[in-house]
Amino acid sequence: MNKAVSDKKVVKTLVDICLSEGLREVVISPGSRNAPLTLTFCANPEFECFSVVDERSAGFFALGIAQQTGRPVALVCTSGSALLNYAPAISEAYYQNIPLVVISADRPQEWIDQADGQTIRQVGALDNIVKYSCQLPTSKNASNWYVNRLISEAFYQCQHKMAGPVHINVPLAEPLYGKTVHPEEKQRRIKQVVSSSSVSAEAMQQLSEDWLKHDKILIVAGLNKPNGRMQQALRQLSEMEQVVVLTETTSNINGESIITGIDKVVSTITEEEVHFFKPSLLITFDGAVVSKMIKKFLRDYQAKEQWHISVSNHHMDTYQQLTTSIEAEPADFLEDLLPKVTSIKSRYRTTWLNRAERSDKHHEEYLAKNGWNDLKAIAHIASALPEKWQVQWGNSSAIRYAQLFKEFYNEDTYCNRGTSGIDGSLSTAVGASYISQKPTLLVVGDLSFLYDSNGLWNNYLQSNLRIIIINNGGGGIFRFIPGPSDSEELETYFEAAHQLNMQPLAEMYGLKYLRADNEEAMNDCLTQLFSESDKPIILEVKTPAKENAGVLKSYFKRLKEEL
Fold it and tell me: Which family is this protein grouped under (predicted)?
């Protein structure tokens, strides 16, 4: 027996197709114009509906869910500026290839630009950061065939090849709260049959022959979801004498011969040594790379060839030397390549591994002698982190510190590196911890946490969530960057210096609060942080603002020294 839902047929059609396409999570921000959508989604128990008031936070909360499940997640908002508040999360989803379906309620078209309340030009408002957008027809007699086609196309674009966000705008006329029981009507579903993107046998043969011409092959992996096949293929390639594989925490790839902590090696390479470290063949994939050092190194010292492997035919030329764009799923391509290539005599792998080993020794020596600061705080987190936790990182300093510690490469790691903004890290972690039910640690800077503190304003905080806030009194990264660090406006306009503490926020949202401002307190707090708890826990770590930049500079100076 059908349950009463919105009396607007276009809404019923939309919700039915969402269900048939496998969408199950719907994040709704309260409003009146979207009432027909809210009533209809909530009437069907097959949807899990979430209420998140702040649309900016709601967007990142949905992103965290889709990040974990790989399935489309819907975002539903009222008309007006509500839609624009999704933009930061939608841009992140676009550049991370995360499937989100934005469903925005709107005024009827005739009321746009007529000084009617809560009305803006919503059509196309997100076009630069979505894969597809459409507006559903408003007429009561609108063809179901046409509505079905528009929505089906949205889901196709949301999931096809490179996943990503789409936008469906739904003009809705008053009255908005009417309900009815619609006659049973099976919606036509347009099935997707995706063609193979594997490389032809002839092309693969040519590529494998080209591969064997190079005795210095460098593979750089950036942002990547945990992928066992990709990891296994790269581990096998990293055992070849002529191959070096560089990864970051966000690559979710590690192995005995894989080099983690890119900056710890690249920062030590002198002009006289460049020849031994620069590649002849560079291989890359989609996914942003955190390290600015490797980007500068490879742009300055270019390889003879560069292959970029992606299911998209977009020419990604981050290092300004692209010679071959390979349209294929990277894991598939590497698995096909492996049987066709062999190890050849070369010192390339050994050169990088020896330097990485030297840097690791300097790293440990420096930390042993160093006092209390951001770097030391992150070191304590690395040592205390239990196995099988997922780690979510805030942007700016936090994710850069993460690259320096091997311990973080053993866990599933996530960070909003699609656009690298400080907004949304907390909301993303909250959504991810809710849907995954995994113990989740967020490590975030003070400004990033405060900017997204509305991420705690919902009913979905899990007891498995732990938040570490590195509070150095402002945007500490600007003390590392030449330019802002030398400016008299640093503290006010770049660093945004402050004296705030996070305890009132933790108490307001009912979280347990811990604070550490030295090593002894840090160790004690970490023990409590990773213990069982019936509520989420925030650990605020206070570090000295002005010392951190000098510490990091002396750290990299130490790495360059001979043993």
Answer: Belongs to the TPP enzyme family. MenD subfamily.
CA-to-CA separations, 133 to 106, 168, 177, 344, in angstroms, rounded? 14, 6, 26, 50
Q: State mean pLDDT over 270-295.
A: 96
C-alpha angle 203/207/211, rounded to 5°? 170
Query: Of all residues in the chain, what percent carry a pLDDT higher than 90?
Result: 80
User: Tokens standing for 167?
Assistant: 């936008």
DSSP H or E segment with residue 305 = strand 305-310
Residue 513 CA to residue 503 CA, distance in Å, equals 6
Q: Which of 332, 326, 66 is nearest to 211 (CA)?
A: 326
Nearest to 76 by CA among 169, 140, 145: 169
**Strand runs (DSSP E) across 119-231, as ranges?**
132-135, 166-171, 179-180, 217-220
CA distance 315 to 335: 22
Q: Report the distance separating Cα 159 and Cα 152, nearest Å.
A: 11
Among 289, 326, 332, CA closest to 310: 326
The Cα–Cα gap between 310 and 334 comes to 12
d(CA 221, CA 251): 6
- Output the 3-class SS for 540-562: EEECCCCHHHHHHHHHHHHHHCC
Give the number of C-alpha atoms closer than 13 A to the C-alpha of residue 56, restricted to the C-beta side: 16
Residue 385 Cα distances to 8, 78, 436, angstroms: 51, 41, 18
Residue 319 to residue 532: CA distance in whole angstroms: 46
**This prediction's pTM:** 0.93
Query: What are 503-548's pLDDT values in tens digits?
Result: 999 999 999 999 999 999 999 999 999 999 999 999 999 999 778 8
CB-CB contact of 25 with 44 (8 Å): no
* DSSP-derived secondary structure letter, 58: H
End-to-end distance of the chain based on CA atoms, in angstroms? 77
Q: Which amino acid is at 486?
A: D
Phi-psi region of 396 (alpha: psi -120 to 50; beta: other; left: phi over 0): left
Q: Which residues contact 526 (CB under 8 A, 6 or more apart)?
A: 380, 381, 384, 539
Backbone angles phi, psi at 393, to 5 degrees: -115, 140
Distance CA 357, CA 353 (A): 6
Q: Where are the alpha helices (DSSP H) in 215-347?
A: 228-237, 262-266, 274-277, 292-300, 330-337
pLDDT band at 479 (very low <50, low <70, confident <90, very high): low
Alpha-carbon span 463 to 301, nearest angstrom: 49
Tokens for 290, please give them: 């955190």
Cis before 108 (ω within 30): no
Token pair of 360 as six digits: 């690791």
- Using alpha carbons, select from 290, 292, 264, 266 the residue that is nearest to residue 363: 264
Average pLDDT over residues 130-142: 87
Q: Within 13 A of 169's CA, how many CA atoms are on the CB side? A: 24
Q: Interhelix angle for 55-69 vs 425-436, to 10°?
A: 40
Instruction: Extract the tokens encoding 551.
Output: 């510490």
